[in-house]
Amino acid sequence: MFIDYARIKIKSGNGGDGTISFRREKYVPKGGPDGGDGGRGGDVIAIGDSNLNTLLDYRYHKIFKAGNGKPGAGAKKTGSSGANCILHLPLGTEIYVLEENKKYKLADITQAGEKVILSAGGSGGKGNYNFATPTNQAPRIATPGVKTEEMELELVLKLMADVGLVGFPNAGKSTLLSVLSSARPKIADYEFTTLEPMLGVVYISDYQNFVMADIPGIIKGAHLGKGLGDQFLRHIQRTHLLLFLIDIATPDPLEAYRTLRSELYLYDSFMDKKPHLIVISKTDTLSPEDLKQKLTEIRNAFKKEYNDEIFAISAVSKDGLDELKYKIYNILQQSR
């Protein structure tokens, strides 16, 4: 199950208390103070894990606590530290702290093995041997360990991909992803076949590839929550290139493109500045004569209004796929 949002509570460990103790040995009647310090509380640590791609583990398990430090002991022995609590998170996870009606970003996990201390454990208290002075050689003072507070966190997963597929439902995005990569999304001839984001690796050669993301189809008003748009638009925020896929059977491809661009801009204005390609799909559904006429009309319309070129492809017959694949790779190389 793909889960890209969760709310959890975390608490780092309390510090152990310092101890009041005095040295007691035979023939040493006044051995002096020897109370040890308390141990440090454990930290709550987030670690980026490239083997994960969902926040499913945090949907049902809501509270994560690190171990408390142990109190000090005689003979100036320091208490043991509390065990750390490790949160393994998929790459692309943003972590927010929730405080009353406000929230602020605490971390953004983007690298495998990246470690972020979300909540540090409390320091241990001081034992009474720390307070001995020439005028007070038998202090009966020790300090408690630092107590930590519980924090509420919001985890938001934004997939890490190079290319984001954008289009209306049933535009052929899943078919294109399945043909270009080894991904196997569900494909059917009805709207909203894709109900969760899919990633696929597109290989150019043994050492050249890029990652493509397919999200559920966008409809007008997606940025406001209509359809499935607002749940998944964030998954293409990190991409370097947007690929707008428009079915050649669409009555007005230019208007369809305007709507798609508008929804992205209203959701996040920065996405309007990303490099993009316009792809007309399902060209195999028209006869050669009708296809030539239709593509001429579409090319002229996009050239006149946006000065943009279009790519015509068929994921079924594989027409135009190699050209598109290498064009995407070259744009990504330039953007990097």
SSE order, one letter for each helix or strand: EEHEEEEEEEHEEHEHEHEH
Radius of gyration of CA atoms, rounded to a whole number: 30 Å
Query: What is the CATH domain class of the largest domain?
Result: Alpha Beta
Helical stretch tally: 6
CATH architecture identity of the largest domain: 3-Layer(aba) Sandwich
The residue-averaged pLDDT reads 87
Largest sheet: 6 strands, mixed
As a percent range, the share of helical residues equals: 10-25%
- The rounded distance between the terminal residues' Cα atoms is 32 Å
Query: Overall 3D geometry?
Result: rod-shaped
What is the CATH T-level topology of the largest domain?
A: Rossmann fold
Oligomer: single chain
Unreliable stretches (pLDDT < 50, length at least 5) are 185-194, 222-227
Structural class: alpha/beta
Q: Please report which band the strand proportion falls in: under 5%, 5-15%, 15-25%, 25-35%, 35-45% or over 45%.
A: 25-35%
> Order of strands across the biggest sheet?
10-11-9-12-13-14
Counting structural domains, the number is 2
Number of DSSP strand runs: 14
Question: By CATH's scheme, which homologous superfamily of the largest domain applies?
Answer: P-loop containing nucleotide triphosphate hydrolases
